[in-house]
Amino acid sequence: MKASKAGVRIVADPSGLCSSNEDLSDAIVPVLPEILASEPTKVSFRALRTSYFASERRGDELLLRLTPRLESESYWDELRSLGSCALTPDERAVYSAVLSSRTSLTPLVTDFPVEGAIVRRIDRRQYYESMIKPSEAASALRGIGSTKERNAYLPRDSFLSLSTTFLPKKELFGLFDRLGEWCFLSLR
Q: Above 60 in pLDDT, residue 41?
């Protein structure tokens, strides 16, 4: 979406990321109450699931492509170099559930070393390509505005490989029902 008025241009991509040639707060702050009061868009289970991840079965393996709004690709490097995180509360809830459903070690980037981890420098910060237990991966996954002693981040490419077991559809329905105000979609 694009909007312009009196020389001010605002561009919003489908993920909600906005850019402008002026201070965005002048345009956005006055309409925040209206935005927050709006009802989520009703979508099918498949559309809601696809807004967080896509999946493809390869033999006994399920390959997930997580689709966080900002925590991927070019923004990923910038966020890590700043020591920041942009995983929203709804994304963190969904991805923590996905991580905890794994039955094997999980490949994540951590800010703490584990045995066998590979050191990775991003700008002046040190991270580790680590394999950690599913329960630890789910609890250490960092979200926006939080920081813990031990933080984990999704891989830059946001791919995860799972065994054939995965969250049952019933559990996903329940999870999607509890996502709250950060999720602009809801189940029909």
A: yes
